[in-house]
Specification:
It is built from six helices and eight strands; from the N terminus they run ββαααβββαβαββα. By secondary structure, the protein is an alpha+beta fold.
Amino acid sequence: METILYKGPRLLLRKAEENDLDFILDLEYRKENVKFIVPFDRDFHLPVIREGEAAIDVIVEEIATGERVGYVLVNGLKTEAKEAEWTHVIIDKKGMGYGHETMKMLKAWVFDVLHFHRAWLDCKDYNARALHLYESEGMQREALIRETIVTNGVYENLVVLGILDREYRQRKREGLELGAVK
């Protein structure tokens, strides 16, 4: 049975099911995506999909067509600190504003529905498109972790970005988030 987490104007977030696994793996391992993430394999995703509580795979889907257009892994759902981590924010249909709507839905779900305190992610320091998206959606650069992962024998840096519940609520008051009164 499909579990819808949040609905936006054009998209929805839903908990991934086993029949979404090939779509998730395809997105992670595509040439244009794999350089920006550390992909996981089927053995990682299956338990997350089947038993996930602390972490869940989330599908981004067009409401009008039912077409899957993205994927996000959400970690930290059982932390005492009420701190969600978003990894593998991958949008298949680029240039349509779906990244912005996905980020807005993730924030609304985490802060308005789950009542979490903080959400964060990390991003390779050369992923300019993603960094622009995250910062335009109110995420603050919190740290640069130097040479923390190795990709094809090369050490790479990660930028940590986060947003607090009060920062999200301020953005909502300013009309910058879903459900804001304008």
